[in-house]
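debug: dumping io for the single-chain case to check the tokenizer round-trip. Nothing else runs in this session.
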Amino acid sequence: MRYRIESDYRLASDLLPVDAFARTYESLDEAIAIAIEGVDDPEEQEVRVVCAETAAVVWRSTVTEFG
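debug: decoded output
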């Protein structure tokens, strides 16, 4: 499966390439790590990792187990 990153907030990072949030990723762990870098406060500013094939949300930064 491939995963993409989405959010209702602007995604940006000084540490990652400009297109990091427009790519798809083969690894869920990699997508999550990159997603967390995209917002200032991932517990408050939800960022999601979505399965590119099904559009199902597979991870949310605002879920209580985050942190």
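debug: round-trip ok. The two ends are 25 Å apart (CA to CA).
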